[in-house]
Amino acid sequence: MHRLLILPLLLAALSAYADGNPSRGDAAAIALGGQVYQANCARCHGEQATQPSAEAPDLRRLDNFCQQLKAPALHARCLQDVDGYFMMAVNSGKVRAGIIYMPPWRGVLTTQEIWAVRSFIETRPLAAPRLNTSVDTEHQQHPQH
Amino acid sequence: MTTLPHRVAAAPNAAHGHAHREADNGINSCTADTHSSAPVRRQPVWRMALARWPAMPGVGVGIGVGAGMRPRLTAALWTTMLATLCLALPAAAQVVNGEAAPEVVVINGCHLWPYAQCANADLRGANLVGKDLHGADLRGARLMRANLRSANLAGALLDGADLTGAMAYALNAPGASFRQAVLAGINLETSRLMRADMEGADLRGASLEAARLNLANLDGAVLVDADLQEAKFWGSNLKNANLERAILRFTIFPDANLEGCKGCPTDW
Question: Least CB-packed of A7, A37, B72, B105 within 10 Å?
Fold first, then answer.
């Protein structure tokens, strides 16, 4: 009897991950995500998720492939996979060959907070393509004769 | 294999095949008459045009041909230029069409795109040539005899996956995790496996010729009978690995951990 009750609960818990981010586009979640991001993620991933550094990847790029998809169903399916990756990566951290590139956040951030951070990142404006290199800027400032 | 709507190809093979057909058609349209079986050999359009081209002063000077000259060199140059144009046009059309969405291939429910969630997927013999699967979750996936040539698996998870006999020439998989994966007989020649975690992986009989395994973790990995010639193990962890009978011609192990390694050289 108990097994019959546990199974639907387990399936419901799994489907919560499988369905992707439930707070996508939610204003309250985005606000919460901004706060959580600034407190925990900004140090490595950049202030407001708009100032990327060499320390960690620019999280706005996670959806690069999905954004190219025109079919709504396919786009949604793609975002679902990225959501799954995001949740797993945050919870488990980035550990390769014993080296911790990002610590696991399981037990530190709640599932709701992680989804909120994901929602917040999705609202961040993408960086404009750079048209000039630092060398170009240098040449403009100090033209050579 | 599922076919998806809206510019989504059924398979990379199909897409490639189509592209090749386009390219072939292009070439044929340019040189359609060159292979004619008619009794009187017909000249291709470009050659007829060239033949009718009068000895115009100045023409061809730019390519090193003087006035009034129609040497074989000129014909060869024209042929090369036309062939280049014919080959380049279909490709250029794909590039110019900025509205085109990327092709998506779905195999056994697995959408082959970056960050794909395909744990335990059945991808046996799948054509994954050049696929961008960075960050994908392929733990426990069945990839026996799959073709992963030049694919991107950077940061992907393949723990416990079975890649027996797979073709993965020039695979890009830095930071990927292959813990306890079966990679027997895989072709990983010239692959980029820097910082990959291959702890306990079975790589017996694999070809890792000229592969880059800098800072990779091969703790307890089995590399028996593997071809490791010219492979780079800069700072790699080969603790308790087994390299018996492996080919170690020009293989380098600077700063590698060779503690308890069977078959590893002792002069590094």
Answer: B72
CB contact under 8 A, B115 and A84: yes
Torsion of CA B55, B61, B63, B68, to 10 degrees: 20
The CATH fold of domain A20-123: Cytochrome Bc1 Complex; Chain D, domain 2 (1.10.760)
Contact with chain A for residue B216, Cβ under 8 A: yes
Which is nearest to B148 in space by CA: B128, B118, B165, B170?
A: B128
Q: Is B158 on the interface with A (CB under 8 A)?
A: no
Identify the residue among A69, A75, A87, A118 best suited for mutation to test binding to B, counting B beta carbons within 10 A and taking the highest. A69
Q: Which residues does A143 contact at the CB level (< 8 Å), separation at least 6?
A: none
In this predicted complex, what is the ipTM?
0.82
Local structure of residue B132 (DSSP, 8 states): B
pLDDT (tens digit per residue) in B235-249: 999 999 999 999 999
Name the residue ranges covered by the structural domains of chain A.
20-123
CATH number of B111-268: 2.160.20.80
Q: Where are the domains of chain B?
A: 12-96, 111-268
Query: In this complex, do B195 and A99 lie within 8 Å of one another by their Cβ atoms?
Result: yes
Which residue of B6, B135, B196 is in closest CB contact with A71? Answer: B6
